[in-house]
Amino acid sequence: MIQRSIDPITAGCDDQGICRPIGYKKVTESCAEYECQFNETYKDAFFTLSSGACKTKTGECKKVDQSWTEKRNDSCLTFQCQAVALGYVSRMTQQSCIDADGVCRPIGSTGFPAMVNNKRQPDCRCELSEAVASSLTIRCSVP
Source organism's superkingdom (predicted)? Predict the structure, then answer.
């Protein structure tokens, strides 16, 4: 009995019916990055998870240790992408107030204009709320 083995001349990964070359990278909607790699044991090509990232509110993918700021309601929240045992998480690292012009103001800042009850107030400060834990308050001097 004669046996022959055939080595492929080229190999690629199936990507929904499209043959992708070795080294091709694709990013999924959840920010996971896969790379097409050839497996010598199985003599075939497969997509392998190569890295991941965190998805922002706007749908962008941020790499591990990368930070970004999102404006939500009346505050600015700064997040950092961190790798954990089961994947990647966006951890809030800082919060600040939004002034009347949409600028993020850190806790403790004073003398900026802010919108309070739909009215622009000229002399305001950003502080931690005493009533609600981890919440911010904008206090303004009454003109």
Answer: Eukaryota
